[in-house]
Design brief:
Bound molecules: S-adenosylmethionine
Order of helices and strands: HHHHHEHEHEEHEHEEHHEHE
Distance between the termini: 30 Å
Shape: globular
Number of helices: 12
Structural class: alpha/beta
Helix content: 25-40%
Strand content: 15-25%
Length: 261
């Protein structure tokens, strides 16, 4: 996922929502990965601010992802016959809910407890409570046996940074994938880095818009997550907002690798 704002302005409204005092919400394992120096400042570090969003305001995050739906081509491209699926960084289930019911078993790994709770509730409401297991874990230490899955995915979650995936995370995703199975990074944010590890790129065409629940919600959420576009979203007064207006690439691409037999 690319949010191309100047670094000093990146996520400025999101960063303003939290302070260093909020870091106490992170578990020790989370702090090791997301604030390794022990002195992180979400007012300066947008990546850390996102972590606090997941834990302090999971419903707000869920409202955002409900608007940012994946291109249907992605769901169509993923192997339909995958019997065992592992998703890492499942969040509140943007992709998970689409995958549940496809195979015999789905393991959704998510470190943030409030998102796990939200995801379990949504899977249960959708009738997938039995075939989907939601469990804590991190990219660099997946709680899954070697060669377990036919398909291993991460959606808008994996980055080359060590706390959010990195080389160790990629190696773990490939470890839990069976030989001949597929690892797919959906809405990837560093194609060259992934290409160096043998990942191929697929992008689905067509215009895409974020679809907020109402014009009011578009204005509210743009004010928090896309402040550079907020004035234009307000001027348009529509619930559907084309991605070029928001200034990000749409969720319509993936990078994948078939694990060697
Ligand atoms: C932008 S959200 C995407 C969530 C969901 N996949 C979606 O598409 O909406 C990023 C997710 O990655 C998770 N995450 C961050 N660092 C992680 C790590 N080291 N290991 C596993 N998941 C991680 C976060 O908790 C969060 O749920």
């Amino acid at each position: 996922m690319v949010r191309p704002e100047a670094p000093a302005r990146r996520g400025r409204e999101l960063r303003r929502r939290y302070t260093a005092a909020d870091l106490g919400v992170l578990t020790r394992e989370e702090a090791t990965r997301f604030a390794p120096g022990g002195d992180g400042d979400p007012q300066a570090d947008v990546v850390l601010a996102w972590q606090l969003l997941y834990r302090l305001e999971p419903e707000l995050y869920d409202r955002l992802i409900r608007a940012e739906r994946l291109h249907p081509g992605i769901l169509g491209w993923l192997p339909p016959d995958a019997d065992r699926i592992v998703e890492v960084g499942a969040g509140s289930g943007r992709l998970t809910l689409q995958l549940a019911g496809r195979g015999r078993e789905l393991v959704a790994i998510e470190p943030a407890r409030p998102l796990r709770q939200l995801l379990r509730r949504k899977l249960g409401e959708a009738g997938h409570g039995d075939c989907a297991r939601v469990t804590p874990g991190f990219f660099d230490e997946l709680p899954v046996a070697t060669g377990f899955a036919d398909l291993v995915v991460a959606c808008s979650a994996f980055t080359p940074a060590s706390g959010h995936g990195g080389e160790a995370g990629l190696a773990e995703m490939e470890r839990v994938c069976r030989p001949g199975g597929c690892v797919a990074i959906i809405w990837p944010n560093n194609l060259d880095w992934l290409a160096a590890f043998g990942y191929q790129y697929v992008c689905f065409e067509g215009e895409m818009s974020a679809e907020f629940a109402s014009p009011q919600e578009a204005i509210e959420l743009a004010g928090i997550f896309y402040p550079g576009a907020a004035a234009e979203v307000r001027r348009r007064g529509r619930r559907r907002v084309p991605y070029p207006v928001l200034g990000i690439n749409p969720p319509r691409d993936l990078a994948f690798k078939v694990v060697a037999r």
